[in-house]
From TrEMBL:
Positions bound to [2Fe-2S] cluster: C86, C91, C127, C131
Keywords: 2Fe-2S, Iron, Iron-sulfur, Metal-binding
Name of the protein described by the UniProt record: Formate dehydrogenase subunit gamma
Swiss-Prot/TrEMBL cofactor(s): [2Fe-2S] cluster
Chemical reaction(s) catalysed: a quinone + NADH + 5 H(+)(in) = a quinol + NAD(+) + 4 H(+)(out)
Entry keyword annotation includes Iron-sulfur: yes
Lineage: Bacteria, Pseudomonadati, Pseudomonadota, Alphaproteobacteria, Hyphomicrobiales
Cofactor binding note from Swiss-Prot or TrEMBL: Binds 1 [2Fe-2S] cluster.
Organism from which the protein derives: Kaistia nematophila
Coiled-coil stretches: none
GO molecular function: 2 iron, 2 sulfur cluster binding; metal ion binding; oxidoreductase activity
Stored PANTHER family: NADH-QUINONE OXIDOREDUCTASE, E SUBUNIT, POTENTIAL NAD-REDUCING HYDROGENASE SUBUNIT
Top-level lineage group: Bacteria
Length: 161
């Protein structure tokens, strides 16, 4: 089993400017820039918003609106591992709510939080496209279907290492 450990750069306005410049010429560059910023730093720092706005000739409010509209963008740094549990209807119909409660209890955190030791961030995701194998989850980009108590417990244990 391959375990991916998230390794993020410390915030740097210079590095953010490089990322923005590299993506500014794309069609519809706001989302690619925001994704690249988050991939580099583990979240979208508030300080990046005016930089992006200026580069794309948008208001800071427009950039902030994009960041806060999409659930995938974080406002705080993520833990070493990110566990995402699907909260969409198909997964809910197959017991995802009980699994979500189990994960929160096992980790001692709620959705959108990171464990005190910085190892695990628990996030909701709204459809992984695995409706036929619901409920589903994603750990550090690895997708898992047919989630049950035992499988969730193994994922939590893996993330806590």
């Amino acid at each position: 089993m391959v375990v991916v450990v998230n390794s993020y750069e410390p915030w740097s306005a210079k590095r953010a400017a490089e990322i923005i410049a590299a993506h500014a010429g794309c069609e519809g560059p706001a989302l690619p820039i925001l994704h690249a910023i988050q991939a580099a730093f583990g979240f979208v720092p508030e300080a990046a918003e005016p930089m992006i706005a200026e580069a794309l000739n948008l208001s800071r409010a427009e950039v902030h609106g994009v960041v806060t509209f999409y659930h995938d963008f974080r406002r705080k740094p993520a833990g070493r591992h990110v566990l995402k549990l699907c909260r969409a209807e198909a997964c809910q119909s197959m017991g995802a709510e009980a699994l979500a409660s189990r994960a929160e209890q096992a980790l001692g955190i709620r959705f959108g939080e990171t464990t005190a030791d910085g190892r695990v961030t628990l996030e909701p995701i709204y459809c992984l496209g695995l409706c036929a194998t619901a409920p589903s989850a994603m750990l550090d980009g690895r997708i898992i279907g047919r989630l049950d108590d035992a499988r969730l417990d193994r994922l939590v244990a893996e993330a806590q290492r």
